Amino acid sequence: MPGNRVLTPIALADVQIEDRFWAPRLEAVRRVTLAEEYEQLRETGRIEALRLNWRPGQPNPPHIFWDSDVAKWVEAASYSLITQPDAQLAAKLDEVVDLFAAAQQPDGYLNSHFTVVEPEKRWTNLRDWHELYCAGHIIEAAVAHHQATGSDKLLRVACRYADYISTVFGRELGKKRGYCGHEEIELALVRLYRATGERRYLDLARYFVDERGRQPHYFDQEARARGEDPAGDWHGHDYRYNQSHLPVREQTSAEGHAVRAMYLYCAMADLAGETGDASLLEACRRLWQSVSGRRMYITGGIGSSARGERFTWDYDLPNASAYAETCAAIGLVFWAHRLLQVEPKAEYADVMERALYNGVLSGISLDGSRFFYVNPLEVDYQAYLHEMDLYGTSSIVPQRQGWFSCACCPPNIARLLTSLGSYAWSAGDDRILVHLYLGGRMHASLAGGKVSIAVESRYPWEGRVRLEVTPEVRNHFTLGLRLPGWCRRPELLLNGRQVDLAPLTRDGYCYLERDWQAGDLLELELPMAVERMVAYPEVTADVGRVALQRGPLVYCFEQADNGPRLQQLRLPGDAGLAAAYEPSLLGGVVAIEGQALRNDPAAWHGGLYCRQPATEVPVPVRAIPYYAWANREPGDMLVWIRGEA
Amino acid sequence: MPGNRVLTPIALADVQIEDRFWAPRLEAVRRVTLAEEYEQLRETGRIEALRLNWRPGQPNPPHIFWDSDVAKWVEAASYSLITQPDAQLAAKLDEVVDLFAAAQQPDGYLNSHFTVVEPEKRWTNLRDWHELYCAGHIIEAAVAHHQATGSDKLLRVACRYADYISTVFGRELGKKRGYCGHEEIELALVRLYRATGERRYLDLARYFVDERGRQPHYFDQEARARGEDPAGDWHGHDYRYNQSHLPVREQTSAEGHAVRAMYLYCAMADLAGETGDASLLEACRRLWQSVSGRRMYITGGIGSSARGERFTWDYDLPNASAYAETCAAIGLVFWAHRLLQVEPKAEYADVMERALYNGVLSGISLDGSRFFYVNPLEVDYQAYLHEMDLYGTSSIVPQRQGWFSCACCPPNIARLLTSLGSYAWSAGDDRILVHLYLGGRMHASLAGGKVSIAVESRYPWEGRVRLEVTPEVRNHFTLGLRLPGWCRRPELLLNGRQVDLAPLTRDGYCYLERDWQAGDLLELELPMAVERMVAYPEVTADVGRVALQRGPLVYCFEQADNGPRLQQLRLPGDAGLAAAYEPSLLGGVVAIEGQALRNDPAAWHGGLYCRQPATEVPVPVRAIPYYAWANREPGDMLVWIRGEA
């Protein structure tokens, strides 16, 4: 059911990942992350909450967004079972799914908080209270569970809930013309439509997206109904916070809470794809320019401010105070991936890859047990220690944590990584596109028959990718290979013969249309140089600085390799930098080594301030991939180092 | 009554300032600041509060530190009357002094808040409630009022209050072994001792200083008496906040609230001077190294963090978030000035001058009507506008304000500037020292007779200072001239003959011992070069940056001269810089002009991040004295500019 979409992602079940980079990551998620998250969900009462046993006066009441945490775990566990059977995990999943099913109310409503804690407040504060957001995550979980198990137990729950929601919300007389302050239901309903073929879910998604930001403003009316002044101050300050400041087609800059924005934009891309709505696609393109061109860290992190976890203004990308929530980078992957299906352009794939390998992957420790909620690009560890000592608190988070009271990120990264395979490939009737070079094998069914493609590569450490195409029968179709934006001079051999890429390349994909037969071999060479990246000068935080990038990976300097006070370092324009694979470092990474200069306190002869020029001494430096930082002893970290390109 | 002090400041009444730099500043304070502050004190209810008419249930109850704001105004107004008669001001002063006198309780207690709002809580929370702090400011006001008017009306009030306080606090049985969480009473009692000759006030000051930080800790006991857990969290977090973490002689680093620290250290210096207590002087020297060597901005601003308005840790001197409260820089002037009387060393005078001409003077607008509470070294004005738009609040303060709910700074800067003359000169039996080169005339009485010295200079714009010495009779004494630390090669002519400075110079003062006679002429030449100052490399905020300084003045770049986004500017090591007096700029300043490079967005051809080196284009730049910033249209400001020395 691709609707007007150009492409459909190859399903997770049809992609096997056998990849030296990803295999240990995914194994850690399966073995450690999913198990520990389940324990956290249990220990914090989130699973128990679904039993609806809480009664007024008891401690630990179910929180308004707890259901979403559990639902994201269900989604992640389901994906994991698609690629890796696991009886223990399946048993836990069954238990939780049963709890969700049992918690559903006779009218279809399903929310642990508003069923037992504040039942009288159901649907009275869509602006702040995440009810439809939680519903959306239950729906996504149901679709994934159905995909994974074939069981429709949770899917039926989701459909009943969605059907109930459609009796409450809409433009018809007697319904609330509302929508959720935290978007999610919209994209979830599109997924439910795709899973069930039921057009009404797509229509409801479209209603939620189209209604958003219209006047008279629903959140105004709703506030008045609660006896509140809609003009009174609230934590979001104004409706930009939840992207309801304007109808979505009139929005031109990415505003407000970054995760909410991403989930809305995902639904807009989905609806543009499903309905062919050109005005929605145009809005997506404008918002894409706003995010990727003016409001995104080099790591793919977005939402630079902790205040409101939000987008701020163009080029406001401070490094030490960067918020760059893991969930927001995940949302950016979701959105880029959806846009790729509507219009396959390298700009989407490049950002998707940038966010995935950097700002998303930094959110989880190498062993899968600990998480970053915020992903700064600079850490002063001494400042952290001093602040803890002086104030007992610090906004600096130099190490990953096992869990959060607001626990959105851990299960979110789990559901992305367990479904990673589905981000790599897309197919249309007569074509296959590869977006991410993951080692392994993919199976697709085209109009002309089945095709499988085996991929071998040491990506992202080396740029050589070997693709062996095996159609079941000789088959005429187009294979589109992404030529990553980070690569200056890609080369391609088809069955040993050099391909002239330029005439075949459109929007960053090289399209090979031919009769394919078993044994056809593509050898893609993507030379990976160490690049000194420079930011547009309006990003004043990065002026006079460079960030190292090699292939899709952004690098950083850590105290463990370079000592403290990384701001003393400078990388002159002529400093040689060499990349080498170090198998025993951080699970095996390509590190970048070279010689920098350090502004040397030992050579200082003045007081605190004096007229002498700084004395710089040469020092060896080592940079590691940003995703791998904070996996050794805690210390300073820096992405943008003083220096020249 | 100089006690063991080496020197005594020449009294304000004996110094006439006729100075092209200071005259308009002091005139603005007299004509505008004192009048507007009186209006603010009246309009906000602070003066009315002294009538003790407030009753429970009424709005606007007297706040615990309101009395101190009024008292500081009394002090400032008194100083102003010493140098400039003003009948209107004298009438207002009389009114306020009468109110203070009438508000004194039969037992001597005097505090508008604790008399009418919470009388049952008198002396129950010294840690947090500023009672003795307010008492100290009333005492300082009384001493100044007595000096100015000869009336002992307020001085008698102060003595009665101090005598009452000595019945409450002390080591004797039945007294509280307490001291104030906000120091001030200690230095005030030393002043009261000096004004009255009553040794008991010095002893009480010494008690408060000596008792501080001893175990068992008074604030612990006091908290328990209130039924609170002393280990529970409070806004200061721990006793470093109010410098009671250790007995004062064991303190080695400047900790906690910067204003409180300065006021304590003032009292320590005073007591060391009065009593010859070597251990107190040693503690002062250690703390001085901590402040001036490791925890002070180049502007003389101290207390780098808004959290707790406090000292943080060595070399933590961020520029944009610098707190650097005006009152703290004022306190640093107070402390340096007191240490100078105990041991005349240029390091104290250099810092006193640095703070005065930069971090203090920046606290008041050129017209005397508006004030900075915080004094950052970098302002991103666009960020301010965006934050106001997004959140309705911003921690960035790009412009001075007319008043503050916590109004300590405006009257504090008024009392410093109205008493400026007393900071310039000191005298001993047989010597006179000049610390600050203020144009005008000074009269001193030495053992050998009276001496007056006339000073002509265009300091701080030009480094030539002409001093004409006029003893009443031929007189053998020593004249010590400060050779400022900022000056590389000072030169001196005595009656037209070059003086060889080196053999005469000790601790930054050139001592000329001779028989002086009328008409003796000193011509001091202090060449003022534009200096590119560099910070010790552990100040990571300033690495790769320079600050311009000329004479005692630190410079800054403002958007009004240089356009926005000052971080795009770089001052290469070979950029020529020229200083020129501009009479129509900011009331007449020496501006520094030159050519810098700007990282040019217009020359950019990539996206948000790309591999191209930055394109720098030459641009003219102009720097103005830091004290004068924010007196034109609001905009960006920067002290530490990227560049090389």
Write the layout of secondary structure elements.
The structure is a homodimer of 645-residue chains.
Chain A: E1 8-9, E2 15-17, H1 22-43, H2 46-49, H3 66-83, H4 87-103, H5 112-116, H6 131-149, H7 153-168, H8 185-196, H9 199-211, H10 218-225, H11 258-275, H12 278-294, H13 326-342, H14 346-360, E3 378-379, H15 381-391, H16 409-418, E4 425-428, E5 431-434, E6 440-446, E7 449-457, E8 464-471, E9 475-482, E10 491-494, E11 497-498, E12 505-506, E13 509-516, E14 520-525, E15 530-535, E16 545-550, E17 553-558, H17 559-562, E18 569-571, E19 577-582, E20 589-599, E21 609-610, E22 616-625, E23 637-638, E24 641-643
Parallel strand pairs in A: 5-9, 18-24
Antiparallel strand pairs in A: 1-4, 2-6, 3-23, 4-5, 6-7, 7-8, 8-14, 9-13, 10-11, 10-14, 12-13, 15-16, 16-17, 16-24, 17-22, 17-23, 18-20, 19-20, 20-22
Textual characterization of the structure:
The structure is a homodimer of 645-residue chains. In chain A, 35% of the residues lie in helices and 19% in strands. With 645 residues, the first copy, chain A, is of the alpha+beta class. Chain A has a 7-stranded antiparallel β-sheet with strand order 2-6-7-8-14-10-11, with no helix packed on it. In chain A, a hairpin with a 2-residue loop joins strand 16 and strand 17. At the A-B interface, helix 12, helix 15, strand 15 and strand 21 of A face helix 12, helix 15, strand 17 and strand 23 of B.
